[in-house]
Inverse folding.
């Protein structure tokens, strides 16, 4: 099967050009000057399918390097399965995810890794890889980190919060970092000071402050800045590379920037919710069907932060200046009915998470329209950098010969109304993005050479997506 995408504006992180893209089987075979022949053959008359992309952007498929499909968490499971979540991702122009294998304390990480394969295999619409979560850092886990690396799991996530669930203490973190420093893998960190947060939560609930609004107020930026700094110091001590997930506080960004200026291999990820949404808006949402409990829709950790304090503005700036390198979703959806509503009367029981896997490419494209980032930077933060950060580049994250045929045709003259009247495809009974309007539209999504979304129709099949073995981060030498 050969497909020619002709006359499109091909956008890579390195630049933009009008070109034809030839996909042969699962792989990009050539990027050609429009209408050119190949070894004397007229290309267009020698392919099976021709797609005219005139006036549209032809970009490498999005890579969401932070998702939690069907994660057991907060007394329930994230509501998207690998099937529903990856299909929603495809609708939104994302052609690869990296999901987190969960280890709770006492569990064996290799058993968990195999369990995650069972959940995903045969169910995914797009390609997927895995990171491994480490909770209690067992001696056997340190050995297993090498085995997982050989399986293509080259990044390990630790938590400085969620006592009794995920939390590792500083000694355990240091041990895992020592291992990462020696085997070349990446340490990912949920950087919030869990003891401080647990105290503030306990005090709030005891004082009768039980509404969702107290979620953000009991997870202050100081807890994020402090933990980010501590993680950076432990990485400095051990020589491990550090990737800080879901950065929301401007002060945490500044810690990451300072570490980078200091020559450390420290990287930062943010999410669409920290670019667009704020604590004030969460506080203001009182009038929907859930009244004062509406705010539960946006309970996630790290939390939404105050717009008055300037976090969102600072985050866009950091994305532009490369103090923050990439954008993932932390896709962790829960329904209001039967899941989030477990926290009626006690905000600390609301499962933490927002679903955005379908909307990341659109939401970041709006940043291009609004002149917050350039067109090439859009591709870089949503695809190219995730590929390089997590050892996929060359196959993923770029339109070039030899790369997988993961291509999105994006229409800058189209329009997308997000979440409105439940037009999204995530398995949720609400949308955190209700009412967002995007001046652009995902037209066609191609995954390893196969069209899976075409003109507002899903035409793929479950099981199209395959496990992707990752190498070491291509940012490290
Ligand atoms: N934050 C969330 O909001 N959900 C999943 C886990 C996390 O760290
Ligand atoms: Zn986290
Ligand atoms: Zn997460
Ligand atoms: Zn369109």
């Amino acid at each position: 099967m050969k497909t020619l995408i002709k006359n499109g504006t091909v956008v890579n992180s390195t630049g933009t050009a009008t070109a034809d893209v030839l996909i042969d089987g699962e792989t990009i075979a050539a990027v050609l000057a429009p209408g050119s022949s190949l070894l004397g053959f007229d290309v267009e008359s020698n392919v099976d399918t021709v797609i005219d992309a005139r006036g549209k952007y032809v970009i490498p498929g999005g890579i969401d390097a932070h998702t939690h499909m069907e994660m057991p968490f907060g007394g329930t499971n994230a509501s998207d399965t690998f099937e529903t979540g990856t299909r929603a991702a495809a609708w939104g122009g994302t052609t690869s995810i990296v999901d987190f294998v969960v280890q709770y304390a006492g569990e064996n990480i290799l058993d968990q890794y195999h369990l995650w394969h069972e959940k995903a295999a045969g169910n995914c619409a797009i390609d997927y890889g895995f990171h491994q979560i480490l909770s209690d850092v067992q001696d056997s886990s340190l050995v297993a980190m090498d085995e997982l690396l050989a399986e293509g799991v080259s990044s390990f996530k630790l938590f400085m919060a969620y006592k009794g669930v995920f939390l590792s203490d500083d000694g355990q973190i240091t041990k895992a970092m020592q291992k990462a420093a020696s085997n070349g893998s990446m340490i990912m960190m949920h950087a919030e000071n869990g003891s401080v947060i647990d105290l503030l939560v306990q005090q709030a609930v005891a004082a009768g402050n039980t509404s969702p609004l107290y979620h953000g107020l009991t997870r202050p930026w100081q807890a994020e800045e402090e933990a980010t700094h501590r993680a950076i110091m432990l990485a400095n001590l051990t020589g491990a590379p550090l990737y800080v997930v879901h950065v929301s506080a401007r002060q945490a960004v500044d810690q990451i920037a300072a570490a980078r200026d200091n020559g450390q291999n420290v990287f930062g990820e943010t999410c669409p919710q920290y670019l667009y949404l704020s604590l004030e808006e969460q506080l203001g949402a009182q009038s929907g069907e859930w009244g004062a409990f509406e705010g539960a829709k946006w309970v996630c950790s790290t939390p939404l932060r105050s717009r008055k304090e300037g976090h969102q503005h600072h985050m866009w700036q950091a994305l532009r200046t490369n103090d923050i390198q990439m954008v993932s979703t932390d896709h962790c959806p829960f329904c209001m009915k039967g899941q989030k509503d477990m926290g009626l009367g006690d905000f600390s029981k609301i499962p933490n998470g927002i679903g955005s896997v379908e909307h990341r490419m659109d939401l970041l494209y709006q940043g291009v329209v609004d002149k917050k980032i350039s067109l090439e930077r859009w591709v870089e933060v949503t695809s190219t950098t995730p590929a390089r950060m997590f050892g996929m580049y060359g196959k993923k994250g770029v339109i070039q010969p030899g790369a997988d045929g993961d291509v999105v045709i994006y229409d800058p003259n189209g329009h997308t109304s997000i979440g409105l009247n439940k037009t999204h495809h995530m398995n949720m009974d609400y949308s955190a993005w209700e009412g967002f309007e995007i001046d652009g539209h995902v037209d066609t999504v191609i995954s390893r050479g196969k069209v899976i979304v075409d003109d507002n129709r899903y035409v793929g099949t479950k099981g199209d997506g395959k496990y992707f073995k990752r190498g070491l981060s291509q940012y490290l030498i």
